[in-house]
Amino acid sequence: MILKGGEHMNTGILFIGIAVVLVFYLIGTYNSFIVLKTRIQEALSGIDVQLKRRAELIPNLVETVKGYAKHEKSVFEDVTKARSALMSAGTLQEKAEANNQVAGALKSLFAVAEAYPDLKANTNFQDLQRQLEDTEDKVAYSRQFYNSNVLEFNSKIQLFPSNVIANMFGFKSAEFFAANEEERKAVKVSFS
User: Are 139 and 102 in contact (CB under 8 A)?
Assistant: First the structure.
């Protein structure tokens, strides 16, 4: 009879041990969701910083080109509208669309610059061009960093057993920062 009481005690300790492990797993998994969600927010903030930097370079670039190409008014208006859309974008979708507008407007602006050899040789224009190229690289990296974090978060939401905890606490999949068809096309711009 003593053995049976000891067996009940061992079973109770086993159940308590399992419950403690499950509680720690629940807490750890919940915290990892919070960390991933915070990384996604930080990565989106990084995209915003680079898009803002690009938007701040655009007026200087436009003014430099304006000095050489005064009759290209529609190009300057398009660039200005695209920049305004980028600055006022709120949602991820709006930011992606505005980013695409800016990319298209800048392509037009650089195409105009091609027609003016003196402008292409202007050191201020060349410096702005380099800064913009650097910013474009940083935007691309920021988008990649954001999407990597979204991938990790979304995968964790879908994989068992963490999906159970995600559903318990209402974690939803995050949206990728995706390129549109226009961005997927290869663009060749030459400044030499």
Answer: no
